[in-house]
């Protein structure tokens, strides 16, 4: 059935912060629920009893593969959203429809290719990513089932941004909530009720992603979409593909370098600390995902508003959106940082009751989150580059934080006296350097450009 509440948000009127909040609240809720696809699995697995710690380590070893799938989802899905929003802002709905159809075609083709490659090379990939013979038992079980849902995952996540970009954040929120609720219900049934363990967690995720994908497609093909998905538009146009890839490359690099860092971290931790520390990093990443959600919701809610305003030549509104991102994001990340420093045992305990892991993991978690406030600057700068189509800067700063700073430090610091702690220290160092560089460059380039354009247009 079609959603009953599909009132669109008008990006061109009213205070900018209200438009952003109207987008951000449902998006944040949706992303919170989206996170449950993964973290609920980890919570149940981490509390399975004997073997739960090792099972959690095994699932953590699949993160780079899952992240790589999400990288291609971001490349072909989210890469077209700024183009789609600017076309809508300029009043060219036909072009917007072609962008949407092209993105869907790219998602379908890439999902088939990734599924085939995953099955062909799953064992060597997992061992290259830091698996041991003991942890591979769990990693292989999870990944071999998870890959079945690649097409569902990429469709649901990659196309949901186009629902939000049309001003239907509540529908986008429901797209995720429906699948996540199914996952929450199915997880204990399969993991404990049917005694499937890790395989049950993966199967629950696949079925839930399929439900979300069906919901997204029903809305986009339906009559209530402002720019519906038409069968005639679902094919590759090389000019549009080039533009999607150009803008999506920044998102791809963000996810791709996350994959690289996860591989380097797991392999280094396996060498310096063993399976226990790989499990600790799984918990640290899970906690970070939770605390990154609200700021991610804000910047994702602001991006279509900023893109639309820029396409409509409302430069002052675009600049106001950037300001709002920065102020709210900085305040939130400071609070999040303090919560981790004050209550690390609580956050660690959500994901594991393994005493051996907790004994070393609590201090590593506090170290990993040091300087988290600087992530607000990275988010603000990065999302502004993407919203205004500045692919060059967006790609560079995606590479800077992870590929140029984190990965080399992860390899270097443990070998010059920091040991296992050096792996966890690389992240906060990159937050400070990468966040400051990204934000200051944004202020000196596109922000100044918006100020000049607004002045010339007589906008306050």
Q: Total number of helical segments? A: 18
The total count of strands amounts to: 0
Report the radius of gyration as a whole number of Å. 21 Å
- What portion of the residues fall into strands of 2 or more residues? under 5%
Q: What pattern of helices and strands is seen along the backbone?
A: HHHHHHHHHHHHHHHHHH
User: What is the number of independent domains?
Assistant: 1
- The helix-and-strand class reads mainly alpha
Distance between the termini: 44 Å
What proportion of the residues is helical, as a percent range? over 70%
* Inertia-based shape: globular
**Any low-confidence stretches, pLDDT <50, length ≥5?**
1-6
Largest sheet report: none
Overall average pLDDT: 79
Structure, explained:
The chain has one domain. The protein has 18 helices and no strands. It has helices at 16-46, 52-61, 63-76, 81-89, 93-128, 133-146, 150-164, 169-193, 198-220, 238-272, 275-311, 315-342, 344-351, 355-368, 375-387, 391-412, 421-444, 446-456. The radius of gyration is 21 Å and the shape is globular.
Per-chain topology:
Layout: H1 16-46, H2 52-61, H3 63-76, H4 81-89, H5 93-128, H6 133-146, H7 150-164, H8 169-193, H9 198-220, H10 238-272, H11 275-311, H12 315-342, H13 344-351, H14 355-368, H15 375-387, H16 391-412, H17 421-444, H18 446-456
Helix pairs in contact: 1-8, 1-9, 1-11, 2-6, 2-11, 3-5, 3-7, 3-10, 4-5, 4-11, 5-6, 5-7, 5-10, 6-9, 7-8, 7-9, 8-9, 10-11, 10-16, 11-12, 11-14, 11-15, 12-15, 12-18, 13-14, 14-17, 15-16, 15-17, 16-17, 17-18
